[in-house]
Amino acid sequence: MAPGPMLDVHPPAGPPNGEPSTGQQKSQKAMTKAERRELQEKQRAAKAAKAAANGAPGKPSGKPKDQGAPQGGAAKPKPSRASDAQARPTLPAATRATEKAKAGQASMAVDTAAKGTQARGLLIFSHFGLPKPVSAAKGDIHPAIARLALQFSTFKITGANARCIATLTAFKTIIQDYVTPPNHTLSRHLMTYLSPQISHLVAARPMSVTMGNAIRQLKLDISGTDFDLPEQDAKDALCRKIDTYIRERIIIADQVIQETASNKIKDGDVILTYARSSVVEKVLLEAHASGRNFSVIVVDSRPMLEGKRLVAVLSEAGIQCTYLLLPALGAVMSEVSTVFVGAHSIHTNGAVYSRAGTALVAMMAKRHSVPVVVCCETYKFSESIQLDSFTKNELGQSLSAYSLLPSD
Amino acid sequence: MDFDESSTTKIVTREFLAIVLAGFGNELLPLTTNHGDEPCPKALLPIANKPMLEYPLAWLEQSGITDVLLVCPTPQRSAISNYIQSEVSSTYPSLRIDLQTFEESQDMASGTCSILRHFSSRIQSDFIILPCDFVPPPSLTLSQLLNKFRTESTYDGAIATACFYEVSKPDKGTVTEDWGMLPTNLPIVFDERSGTLLHIDTPDDVDNNNKEFELRMSLLSQYPRTKLSANFRDSHVYVCRRTVLDALQAKHHFESLKEEFIPWLCKPQYQRTRREKYGNILSPVTNNLSQALALKHSTLHLPARKQRLRRSAVGSDDDEHLRSVVPSPVEQDDEEATEPSLRVGLIAHRASSGFASRANNLHAYLELNRFFLGQTTYVLPSDAETRSLIDPKAQISSDSMVGRSTRVEERASIKRSVIGKHCVIGKMAKVVGCVLLDHCVVADGAKLDGCILGAYTKVGAKAELSRCVTQPGYEVGEGETARNEKLETSDWTARDTSESQESDEESDDASEDSSE
């Protein structure tokens, strides 16, 4: 695979546009680390300001533009920065820079930097954009879908299986509440009725592969509905098909996986798992229930910290658990006998698509010759192929320090 | 064949019904006393020249609620109905307001609980209770409250969400004690991280034990880090599940929502005996499909601790939960159901995020008007007819509001005041920091400072009123002075003469219409 494009994390130290005219022209070596960083921020900010100025000439006059601006910005006192309606909470680097910088100049430049990058602060993620706030329901969104969208956007229902089951359950409610308008047939109109509901869910959080596959199956079933059936029978038949889908392709598939995978766990094994997969959790609980004696290492990562809940569930069941964060993985990998991971989907070329960080676990395991078992139901197979990294990620919510405490 | 394109049938079920309660406003007397035969409903008292009712209605429309049930006492029905038909239907076309009356008299106002019980047959879905006098801050949208309710009621079985707003203590000088006591705040205990309301200290609790504050240990073991605060006031906005009404029916003796029912509703979430008694009513086995299976598979979901311990213990009987009568796809998972938390959510709005208040007493009414004055600047009206009524030599400060068709004569001075519609401000009159309702007449040379004049009040020439409140239709004689008083007409036969009596502060028995 060809190497990806060079990611320009640090702006080039070329002719800086935003160089303050009164700034000391020290050499790079003479400046302290903080001042060097501050200079970097200013350069990046000026570059972003230039790009932003070219791209959005209609911005309010508070924004400085081009070379002449920082000098003009010097005249503006600090209060103008606070009153700028678009001022976003500054990044820690930015606040450090403002403390050290001269009056208005650097603060205006840094402020532009904050607005320019406008995201997590890492240029490498800047193409993701910000997590979207859930918009008010436009048009006739069923209350069940509105609530589900809220559950998705506030990360209350997460995980490929959970989201699929939740979506299908909500669709069952909608189908039961649905009334075919006159001069329409259920098989044709129901799909047009469901489409805006699906878009609302997608607006809350990008659709998972499982949801996509389930909806595709549902559409097939709807269009295959018998024309002559009375409406209530048609609706009941659809609900039964949804139930069958959930039961056969998720629940029973999970049971088959449980039996097969738990056979791979022997007494005295050390199992490593990453984040929390509903299937892997079931496998481990099943293996423990069938009497095997093993311990589990749970590797976790920010921002979601799902592994904590897995540790809670496993410890309640009596399994001995170790918990660590992803950077500490190398310390324990040599003791692991098997790695079990779940999957969000499997691509056509066999690549496994899972929680961010799974690839790291798999590669580390390979380095230490530890077998990796992927537990994935067949309904998660997708027809796509992903060639590059950092394309389909979502950015999670940044958590404050206080939310690290275990919560129910 | 009939190619009818207009068949857009409403397929979507109604999610929320908003219930707006309009009462008599006994705390706002004498502003709400009848003007002759006509009632002055509290809901139509203007704040910044907009009827009070408009603020909650605007709030509702902003969040997309369409169905409103407006409950008012029978005497006020026609006034409110006129208002709704003339103004609301044009400004808020998406709201469908159903006006219902409730028999009660001004002296014996029935409690909000009885009203709710009376109308419970009309309420089929989850509902929102709003008072007519709550002015929400722009930063707090009803959608935030609704979203919190929607998320929590699905996620862990919460039953209601309330909204409390922080009040800052007013300065000593601005409060006129003679207008009535400032309402005291009820101390509340809440958990900030999850936004849960745990305990409201009611006046009954204070009566039972005024030395100690009693809390249950089960509250503290479930929520070890709580906050206790007396800075918050209840906005009387409650978003509730339909099952809460069933619980209300079970409690016949409760009269007041704010003081009795809601504090009671906070208890089942941690008190075991109440949960056992009322858990079935508050969270019953229903026909609705729940997200229990999805939540079981959710990677960020953790069943309640009691449930996890119970799962490891064999042979325990489970309480029902978000259980369905409709069979779930997997039969045996019904037993591993999670218990609903029966939580009451809370949105605690801080004073720093915006000013919010309920206009249910005279101080708050004045404060709200002043707040809105600070938001706008006065400009001379643009249409010529209204313009001609305002004399160019009149001094109207930029932080005042003057209503339509008000005549302001020369050398009148208006500062920091709200003047209603169709008023007359005479020459050399000085109006500072006042609120004048519609149709007031202030004669020449009168001086008004910090007063609230009810509708149709006439202030005689050279009268001086300081911090007074007048009843609608009151007439202040020429040259009279009054300070810190509530001016009421105690005797209606005195209306025929030009002089009217000033009433004493002790008797509030006004507005008895002698000629029926």
TrEMBL record, chain A:
Annotated localization:
Cytoplasm, Cytosol
Q: Read off the InterPro entries from this record.
A: IF-2B-related (IPR000649), IF_2B-like_C (IPR042529), NagB/RpiA_transferase-like (IPR037171)
Q: Which family does the record assign? A: Belongs to the eIF-2B alpha/beta/delta subunits family.
Q: How does it assemble?
A: Component of the translation initiation factor 2B (eIF2B) complex which is a heterodecamer of two sets of five different subunits: alpha, beta, gamma, delta and epsilon. Subunits alpha, beta and delta comprise a regulatory subcomplex and subunits epsilon and gamma comprise a catalytic subcomplex. Within the complex, the hexameric regulatory complex resides at the center, with the two heterodimeric catalytic subcomplexes bound on opposite sides.
Q: Which organism is it from?
A: Trametes cubensis
The main location is cytoplasm
Cite the record's Polar residues compositional bias ranges: 19-30
Q: Which PANTHER family match?
A: TRANSLATION INITIATION FACTOR EIF-2B, TRANSLATION INITIATION FACTOR EIF-2B SUBUNIT DELTA
| Stretches with biased composition (Basic and acidic residues) | 32-44
Q: Which UniProt keywords apply?
A: Cytoplasm, Initiation factor, Protein biosynthesis
This chain belongs to the protein called Translation initiation factor eIF2B subunit delta
Automatic annotation (TrEMBL), chain B:
User: Which cellular component, as a GO term, is one annotated location?
Assistant: eukaryotic translation initiation factor 2B complex
Q: Which CDD domains match?
A: eIF-2B_gamma_N, LbH_eIF2B_gamma_C
Q: Which InterPro entries match?
A: eIF2B_gamma, LbH_EIF2B3/5, MobA-like_NTP_Trfase, Nucleotide-diphossugar_trans
- MF GO annotations: guanyl-nucleotide exchange factor activity; nucleotidyltransferase activity; translation initiation factor activity
Keyword Protein biosynthesis part of the UniProt annotation: yes
Alphabetic keyword roster? Cytoplasm, Initiation factor, Protein biosynthesis
- Is Metal-binding among this UniProt entry's keywords? no
Q: Which domain of life is it from?
A: Eukaryota
GO aspect biological process, one term: cytoplasmic translational initiation
Instruction: Please list the residue ranges that the record marks as compositionally biased, kind Basic and acidic residues.
Output: 480-498
| Start and end residues of each MobA-like NTP transferase domain | 41-160
The residue stretches assigned to a coiled coil in this entry are none
Q: Which family does it belong to?
A: Belongs to the eIF-2B gamma/epsilon subunits family.
What PANTHER family does the annotation carry?
A: TRANSLATION INITIATION FACTOR EIF-2B SUBUNIT GAMMA
Name of this protein? Translation initiation factor eIF2B subunit gamma
